[in-house]
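Next comes a concrete protein, fold included:
___
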Amino acid sequence: MMTRDEFRQLLEQGVFILDGATGTNLQKAGMPVGVCPELWIMEHPQAIQDLQRQFVEAGSRLVYAPTFTGNRIKLAEYGLEDRLIEINTRLVQLSKEAVGDKALVAGDMTMTGQQLYPMGTLTFEELVDVYKEQARALYEAGCDVFIVETMMSLQETRAAVLAIREVCDLPVMATLTFEADGRTLYGTPPEAAVVVLQELGVDAIGTNCSTGPLDMVERIRAMYRYATVPLIAKPNAGLPEIVDGKTVYQTTPEEFARDARLLVEAGARIIGGCCGTTVDHIRALHDAVRDMRPQPVSAVKKRALASERSVVEITLDGPFQVIGERINPTGKKKLQAELRAGSMAMVRSFARQQEKDGAAVLDINMGTNGIDEKDMMIRAVYEVTAVTGLPLCIDSSFPEVIEAALRIYPGRALINSISLEGKKCQRLLKAAKKYGAMFIALPVSDAGLPKSVEEKHGVIRSLVKQAEAAGLAREDIIVDGLVGAVGALPTAALDCLATFRYCHDELQIPTVCGLSNISFGLPGRIYANMTFLSMAIASGLTMAIANPGQDLLMNAAAAANMLMNRAGSDLAYIRRIRYVEKKEEEKRQHQPPVPPAGPSAQPEGSTKQAGSPVNGNPVYQAVLNGEKDTIISCTKEELHKGTGPEDIINQLLIPAINKVGQLYNDQYYFLPQLIASAAAMETAIHHLEPMIQRSSSEKLPTIVVATVEGDVHDIGKNLVALMLRNYGYEVIDLGKDVPASAIIEKALSAKAAVVGLSALMTTTMMHMKDVIAEAVKRHYDGKIIIGGAAVTPSFADEIGADGYSKDAADCVKLVGRLLK
């Protein structure tokens, strides 16, 4: 087994070569599609050992043990979950026997195929336990390092990494797979993956699968801008094509090696091959890059927070940024009442609005009487991350609340805050290190508030020293200026300005403050706040916790950025002013009209058309925002107004889900929002359906959907089924790993107009052709459409499918076109 320091030193020697494909090469060696790969390998050990020996002879210095789907959830699909320890142990042993001391062996882990809460039912802690079980087996079997690979979800990657770290301290590598748009299926860009995972303790990060070397170059470049760990690139041998009825990867070893040099130039230090890459590809790769000098691993750490979908960089002399303060029940009686009632509607609304108003980060505080603060904080993290891509600032007086939130947050959070108060300080610093968080350093000690500026600066220095001793860096810290009320202490503003200058000029650490404290007890507080903010920015203030809905404040911040010539601030100022003007214009346009005198002119018993404008209708907005728990009340209110149930569906629900599809295609929404909106619409339709009397002629066609034989991935297929049902189609979902004969049998018996086929893996795509052949054989005359991560329009044409859809929203359009 290898230590993390030894692994880092090994990678400093130059370009490090991994192995090539396992699945596609074993299929050539006789492994059938649809069997449990791990079990087949155990029964045919010579196949994997011969392959791994050849990879090492070709130049591989590390091979992946074939434990890819060796977790309990995956093995249960074959009834093998009780053999988890045996399977993982034996497969590591086979790999170590094959390579001896000529190469390292990585314990290989990947996604379970199940969706995490709140999109699915699997909780984060359950998933950690699943991964921990496999990690322990791999560690005890003697693997040298871990690889968490082909990950589509950053949160699942976090779960796997935490599981490994809670089992052992072996080196961990992690690679995600990115779609053609440059993001994972769940909307994570490469830079966010790097920021989150390297702070979580991953020793090398990168990307694998889904594309050839050339299309992977830009992903590596994006990662390199933020990486302080070595980067990994493990591309396919191009995209698969059908030649003489077989799946073929056309990129030759020479082409693969030539293009792989560009990956090294872009910043990759660890490189290998994924689907379709043979021993010849690895040999050519080794020969092409062995004399290259890889880009240096940066020792300069950027200050950056990240959500699952975005990165916010914090720089000493960059633009001033606001941490939105609204999600805090202090002084908000209505929010307190909602939280006690278990409602998160206002929390979600505050999150969305603060993002629109220009916040860069959102502070989350659930401290109020009458609730379980830890439980409510966890709920708030889930709810807020579902509706916004902004990073979060976790705010609580209790370490256990902060720890619980950091554990489940799918990003790199900011802790608000850590003071120099005894055991609490050490506990929170340890949590910040474990979960990779930044923190706000609050200059308060066991002695209480500092009595002078000098004492405050001494506490700040002590906090920095404690953080560094805990393994954190100065780049992980933002200092709170500790703003007091100028009405009580006339020098409060001046003292804070001195602290901002001290941290900026001498410590080179960014600062933050609770801005509104300065004006406490004074009239016209906004003017004092606005003036103090401008002075503070000029003195070096980096961020403030404030209400971004206060236009005067935000306008002053934008103007201060511009006047100080901060990067991009001129255009940002113009956008800010235009946003305020547009907001004011919308307010004027939406002023309610003066009601006419006398009784309503609405005829008794008439059916009112859906409210206008549609965009402002609560039902429409509930779908757009994925408000599953409020859409029923909105729908009932619309019915109470006299809108007919069919009008609600046709004029509100369907336009809303169409808009969601457009936002998804424009990469403004990602998979979590798409699923939430579809679920909200489905909830409303279920409520309305009993009220609608449909004639037989109005019934929409039946559609059969399935994941093809040998493939056990169904996230995309499930979403397609949900979206089609929302549009009124009768959908029969056959599940995953379904043989061609069963798919066509059901299509015939149900008289389905369309069969929708899904496959994630290149090794199972060819079973789509089997379904089409079965359809011809059984004289099924409906349409057959296909989709999936590796599927392309050209593949659809090659196998004779009637259409291809890239995602669920596109599938609805495709079905509509085909059935016209």
